[in-house]
Write a structure and sequence with these properties.
Radius of gyration of chain B: 21 Å
Number of helices of chain B: 6
Oligomer: heterodimer
Largest sheet of chain A: none
Strand content of chain A: under 5%
Structural class of chain B: mainly alpha
Helix content of chain B: 55-70%
Strand content of chain B: under 5%
Number of helices of chain A: 21
Number of strands of chain B: 0
Distance between the termini of chain B: 30 Å
Largest sheet of chain B: none
Distance between the termini of chain A: 41 Å
Chain lengths: 428, 206
């Protein structure tokens, strides 16, 4: 049965049937052939219950927050502000690419938006300041992936929903690894540029006075981050409430910048609802499929089967990581998360690992999927905003950061407290 | 046919804006609730419930718009290797399967709605919201989604029969990368944004 499920899913998805329809039909067909009860009768209730879930209200709120900030005209000034702080390092502006991606990620959940926005600001600098082009492009592609790890991440909400894990704990857990991964990216650039000084291009130095003046341009994103993530960490608000606070704060900010217009809001709302409708349709179908699979005991059988293979927990974990690495080469990350999280997480938990920790590990695996060819969307995004040049430049440039992410995976496995320390501190 | 499509597309936009107003309203409602709770120690109560309805209605109302915008995710790893004839077939099959699932979901949603009507169901919360109002809007969103999918299938098939593969792809194909970037990052400049309108887009711009 499990075999049929997987083959069926792969076949439909491979045919490029919309992922939501593929999941939904799989659920309907399985229950039709394998269940004596008309499980599909629960579908209506499920659409309504899941569709009104207050936790999920956070999704459109975070998307809207990002859409408003994108249009509030703060990115370019933020980038230039970060330049003053980071571009004296060997590798110059490449550090600003990573730093501003991390900061941008702290307000927005979309990796495509992060890579495209930062890339548009940064790309003209390659020739102007003589950077090694592939490595520079790599920093943009890799920096863009930070969006799904650094809170507020929409992917973490989805993981929390599907696996019944606390989103507040996941948000606490993602903070340090996000910071560490940004640092590893920067160390990667430094190492590359110390080994090959010609790659490093021109550095930009700034006086401390200039730096503190530049802080004013960094205040908007930092302020939003403090409102949103700070209110969750301080226990003042749930993720959904924090996201709503963020939307209101972003609107105030846009109004102060003079960019809050009806046309702007309309465009932001269109983008938000397009993304939300797309995500929700997949979630609704995935929730239904999971309901069918667990009612019929298929999820449990899979867990049982893997546990009975007799591998050590660590070997099984490595197998799961390998599975995601391969899958990540071919599948888009959101669909990958929504189709696999409910099947894989119970296995990992049965092996004795912490679900919050696994959520973070999974996010790093998804980040890897964003920059591994042939289907690494960030590679294509960076290529898409370049005026000229071959796709190979981007792929080669991303390679060092693939290794950085492997280092991050190893660190998470060796020191689980990297993820679990903050949640333990707050929730005991 | 193209007039019907244009009208429906515009209508789906209006529905989306309406959903957006609900959503922004919820953001303010929840914010006021949080501030009152923390600063004044008074809870308004019900902000979570109401924003849940707003969210559910807004999502259902935006399903059609997302379909017109070809935003429903499809995995295109193999798709990009298909010859264009097979692609057009996959496009149409995708729409048909989406419609099939949507019809079954809408049908099941109808059972819930008719129960609500029969029993005059209210939410089991202090607000005791009459569920018929949000559920009626929600159900309408699903019905319009099914209708949109059905019309798109007919229009795509008609264009295919007329030998207009590019036109069919505009309705049902997978979005090209440039289009995706423009959707997500309005300030980003794609390398091909100037030339895109003049060239035929076969949905495989990468």
């Amino acid at each position: 049965m499990i075999g049929y499920v997987f083959v069926g899913l792969l076949f439909l998805i491979g045919l490029s049937i919309p992922v939501a329809a593929a999941l939904g039909w799989l659920g309907l067909l399985i229950q039709y052939f394998a269940s004596a009860m008309p499980l599909h009768r629960a579908l209506g209730d499920m659409l309504w219950q899941t569709g009104t879930d207050f936790l999920l209200v956070a999704i459109p709120m975070f998307v809207l927050l990002g859409e408003i900030l994108l249009r509030a005209g703060i990115t370019e000034r933020m980038y230039n502000g970060i330049v003053k702080w980071l571009a004296w390092l060997p590798g110059g502006l490449m550090h600003s690419n990573i730093g501003s991606s991390a900061l941008f990620a702290a307000t927005s959940g979309s990796s495509v938006a992060t890579a495209a926005t930062i890339g548009t600001v940064a790309l003209p600098q390659i020739e102007k300041r003589g950077y090694n082009e592939p490595l520079f492009l790599g920093t943009i592609a890799a920096g863009g992936t930070l969006g799904i790890l650094i809170p507020p991440s929409i992917n973490l909400i989805l993981f929390g929903l599907l696996t019944d894990t606390s989103v507040s704990e996941l948000y606490l857990a993602g903070f340090l690894p996000g910071l560490v991964l940004s640092l590893i990216f920067m160390v990667t650039v430094v190492i590359a540029c110390v080994l090959r000084p010609s790659w490093g291009g021109e550095r930009v130095t700034a006086t401390w006075h200039e730096r503190f003046v530049a802080l004013i341009d960094l205040l908007p994103p930092i302020g939003i981050f403090l409102v949103v993530v700070g209110s969750i960490y301080a226990g003042l608000a749930t993720p959904t409430e924090a996201a709503s606070l963020g939307v209101v704060a972003a609107m105030v900010l846009a109004a102060a910048n003079g960019s809050l217009t009806i046309a702007m809001l309309r465009a932001a709302v269109e983008g938000t609802m397009r993304t939300t409708a797309m995500i929700m349709l997949i979630i609704l179908a995935a929730v239904f499929l999971n309901f069918v699979l667990s009612t019929l005991g298929i999820t449990q059988a899979l867990t049982q089967g893997i546990v009975e293979l007799g591998l050590t927990p660590f070997q099984t974990l490595l197998m799961i990581i390998a599975f995601y690495l391969v899958l990540g080469c071919f599948m888009e990350t959101l669909s990958m998360l929504l189709t696999t999280a409910t099947l894989v997480t119970p296995i990992v938990v049965a092996l004795g690992y912490d679900p919050v920790w696994f959520g973070i590990l999974l996010m790093v695996l998804l980040e890897l999927a964003l920059i591994t060819p042939p289907v690494g969307i960030n590679l294509y995004v960076v290529q898409g905003i370049r005026p000229k040049g071959s796709m190979n430049d981007v792929m080669i440039g991303a390679v060092p950061f693939v290794f950085s992410m492997f280092v991050m995976l190893a660190l998470l496995i060796a020191f689980p407290s990297l993820a679990l320390w903050l949640p333990k501190l707050v929730y005991g | 046919m193209s007039r019907l499509l244009a009208t429906m597309r515009q209508f789906s936009r209006v529905l989306t804006w309406f959903g957006g107003v609900l959503l922004i309203g919820s953001a303010f409602l929840v914010t006021i609730d949080v501030l009152c709770r923390k600063l004044l120690n008074v809870s308004l109560g019900g902000a979570d419930e109401l924003s849940g309805y707003a969210f559910c209605m807004a999502t259902a109302l935006a399903l059609s718009y997302a379909l017109f915008e070809r935003a429903h995710i499809r995995v295109d790893f193999l798709y990009r290797m298909f010859p264009s004839g097979v692609r057009r077939f996959a496009d149409l099959l995708g729409l048909i399967m989406l419609l099939g699932f949507a019809v079954i979901a809408t049908w099941m949603a109808w059972f819930l709605l008719s129960d609500t009507m029969t029993y005059g169901s209210r939410s089991i919360t202090p607000l005791r919201t009459p569920l018929i109002y949000p559920q009626a809007v929600w159900f309408f969103g699903w019905v319009f989604f099914c209708f949109t999918a059905a019309v798109l299938i007919c229009a795509t098939a008609l264009r295919l029969v007329a030998g207009d593969g590019a036109g069919a792809s505009e309705l049902a194909g997978i979005k090209s990368l440039d289009e995706q970037i423009e959707d997500e990052a309005p300030d980003a400049k794609t390398a091909h944004s100037e030339t895109r309108d003049s060239t035929t887009n076969d949905g495989d711009g990468r």
